[in-house]
From TrEMBL:
It comes from Vespula squamosa (Southern yellow jacket). It is found in: Cytoplasm. One of its GO terms (cellular component) is SMN complex. GO terms for biological process: spliceosomal complex assembly; spliceosomal snRNP assembly. This is Gem-associated protein 2. Gene3D superfamilies: 1.20.58.1070. Keywords: Cytoplasm, mRNA processing, mRNA splicing. Belongs to the gemin-2 family.
Length: 244
């Protein structure tokens, strides 16, 4: 330890009458000022803590819980979860391959001419995704041609709109479920924090609907279990998963 206290280089005698208010006139003069200031510092310093600053915060922070446990009769089996996870992964890889071919111009892709709502039009997107199109030449279904027109910021925003809609309605309508699944297929990884939070909200909402609904059709149970499974298993939010 003594070796660490040895000076790195000799600075000569230090004139204690140096006026520290004046700027140093050389590098050696600057070092002398540093040494003088160091000598004036106490060996031990005790902080004067203001106790008022240690009061409890006045802002309430909501701690979000995980998914609600499924009733025994509605919980998915391990085999069911694994099968859906494989199917989703295969479909996602297939779409990625198509996207790669389009980017490298190895595949000609004719874009669909359907007019999509503006990214900021939440009500427009809810209507677009939940209602049938009145024009026979157009479709509001989440076709691959429509999905490939959507950039990632739009995909993430529409996903957020639909999750909020599910939370408000307390159910997943068939067409909304189609769009949710399709958007997950074209959602890029890694997730940004906002999108990750959105997916976690989707899984929680599905678990609440599953636990509180008295009468659910088989396809409704399957959709709820599916989204919980994908969020938890594929997108690695394992704390929300149904037991394997």
């Amino acid at each position: 330890m003594d070796s660490l206290r040895e000076p790195a280089f000799y600075v000569g005698d230090i004139d204690e009458d140096i006026d520290l208010k004046q700027p140093p006139i050389s590098g050696r003069d600057y070092i002398k000022r540093v040494v003088m200031e160091a000598q004036q510092c106490a060996d031990v310093v005790v902080a004067d803590i203001n106790i008022k600053c240690l009061k409890k915060p006045t802002i309430d922070v909501e701690h979000l819980a995980g998914c609600v446990e499924a009733p025994p009769c509605l919980a998915p089996t391990t085999e069911w979860q694994e099968c859906r996870l494989v199917n989703f992964t295969d479909l996602k890889l297939y779409v990625i391959q198509i996207q790669d071919k389009i980017r490298t111009s190895k595949c000609k892709w004719k874009s669909q001419e359907t007019q999509l709502p503006n990214i900021d039009d939440q009500r427009g997107w809810i209507t677009y995704c939940s209602e049938e199109c009145s024009n026979e030449n157009e479709t509001h279904s989440p076709t691959l041609t429509t999905l490939l027109r959507m950039k990632q910021p739009l995909i993430e925003q529409v996903l957020e709109y639909l999750v909020e809609y599910v939370q408000t309605q307390g159910k997943i309508e068939y067409k909304i479920g189609q769009w949710l699944y399709a958007l997950l297929v074209v959602l890029d990884l890694p997730l940004n924090p906002d999108t990750c939070s959105c997916l976690r909200s989707l899984a929680r909402a599905c678990s609440v609907i599953r636990a509180n609904s008295k009468k659910l059709e088989e396809h409704e149970i399957g959709a709820l279990n599916l989204f919980i499974c994908l969020v938890a298993r594929y997108y690695r939010q394992v704390d929300l998963a149904d037991p394997y």
